[in-house]
Design brief:
Structural class: alpha+beta
Order of helices and strands: HHHHHEEEHEEE
Strand order of the largest sheet: 3-2-1-4-5-6
Largest sheet: 6 strands, antiparallel
Number of helices: 6
Oligomer: single chain
Helix content: 40-55%
Shape: elongated
Radius of gyration: 21 Å
Number of domains: 2
Number of strands: 6
Distance between the termini: 21 Å
């Protein structure tokens, strides 16, 4: 939950500060914002195409998201005094503002899904209903530690025998085994109408 909040507010705050500090108003022209729109489209394609493999992959995706959000936030007028005349960027500047949700929400969605994908599970599983009735599990691992995941595949959730079933899932995978049978543990995740994220 904390990482999800940081993923939402962190890139926005960093983007505001960087766009005001590093992108002068004089370069914010129509062609600049045309390039920003293309970068936003490329970012959305990448964030929903690059498979979950490691923390480093996710840090690279987060870094790309911060850069893209910074460029998108440059559509907000700079309040720094400059000697050169202000360029308004035309209708493309206005269009860039509306791309904000298509950058910010995929960042949060990717971070949320990465946390689930990264978990390695191997132990006795119990099921419960999480926030808003989301199918969720609590696993007592073989080493005695515990792990929980909110939002698992409904079919898998329905097949769990409370306190008796054994669930195993390797790290960075959406699939695992429930009582020795291959199953999808994590459902396909989307953001708005975009996606789904890769398995």
């Amino acid at each position: 939950m904390l990482l999800d909040l940081l993923a939402f507010f962190g890139p926005f705050i960093i983007g505001v500060l960087l766009s005001q500090a590093l992108i002068p108003e004089r370069v914010r022209t129509e062609s600049f914002f045309g390039g920003v729109i293309v970068i936003c489209i490329i970012y959305d394609f990448l964030v929903f195409s690059v498979p979950f493999r490691s923390v480093w992959t996710e840090l690279l995706c987060l870094g790309a998201g911060i850069v893209t959000e910074t460029l998108t936030l440059s559509s907000v007028p700079s309040n720094r005094p400059e000697k050169e005349p202000v360029r308004y960027g035309g209708y493309l500047r206005a269009a860039t503002i509306f791309l904000m949700p298509f950058v910010a929400f995929p960042i949060v969605g990717r971070v949320n899904q990465a946390q689930k994908m990264a978990k390695k599970l191997d132990g006795v599983v119990q099921k419960y209903s999480g926030d808003h009735g989301v199918p969720s599990i609590f696993v007592t691992q073989q080493d005695g530690s515990t792990a929980s995941i909110e939002g698992i595949d409904p079919l898998t959730w329905n097949l769990i025998h409370q306190g008796k079933s054994h669930l195993s899932k390797p790290a960075w995978s959406a699939f695992g085994q429930l009582d020795g049978k291959p199953m999808r543990v994590l459902p396909k995740a989307k953001v708005m109408f975009l996606g789904p994220f890769p398995n």
